[in-house]
């Protein structure tokens, strides 16, 4: 299971990676949804996947892994009890070690190697050092108010600031600023005594009245503007890649050649940021930089490894995750 803040994905497979049943439900992060609702979503996803796997599936499960966003909350015994009860209600028998971090699963989705680093950049951003397939150290992941530098929120915030700056000058807007302004204040233009700086303040007030995390929706506009050669988008892309690289370097030893797995919407969907970041990460080391694969498949693979399959077999790993064992790194 890959239990995130928005979606929970459950997958039942054989020990050699053949899928038997899968299902989705809403997010199961107990921090975002509360333990009761998170547990309900987890039960729904697991139960549906097991139903689709066949009438004998529940009695045949030999291992289970849940990659849980907000897994650190399970230090609270009450929250852990809710989440373990979710497994029981779905038809599983918890052994006490089913829950791991979603970053551990993200790393496993990109490589069968037991050691390395995973960088997740979606709405937020966090880098995690992995040893023995478990989290040992993290950098950033501080949330949009304090950190998450290089995340979709951070990128969108920079795009909004640049748009307000250009609007206040009263000149022609760049492709990025034009796209952001059209999204926020469509059809509004400064007229008569309505000065450019007031137009910019109107833009800012509109954004301030909305949920802050909504700024993350501007991140794809930066990628598109970069494709059009917008210099302001190029600055944001390079800065985002620099922040993300810095987070990775904080959890690695200088010159380290262990793999780095890139996960999250920013790194999967934005080629300019991914390429700039890859260049920074491989400079002087040649460390392999890999894209994350199917995360629910990675959770199933970790469960299979716990059940005794060969964790060093790249072909078996690929059968679970969809990762290409012949593609050692993200092309720059």
From TrEMBL:
Q: Can you give the residue ranges of the ATPase BadF/BadG/BcrA/BcrD type domain? A: 2-277
Q: Where is the signal peptide?
A: none
Where are the annotated segments for Disordered?
17-36
Q: Which InterPro entries match?
A: ATPase_BadF, ATPase_NBD, Euk-type_GlcNAc_Kinase
Name assigned to this protein: BadF/BadG/BcrA/BcrD ATPase family protein
The organism encoding this protein is Nocardiopsis alba
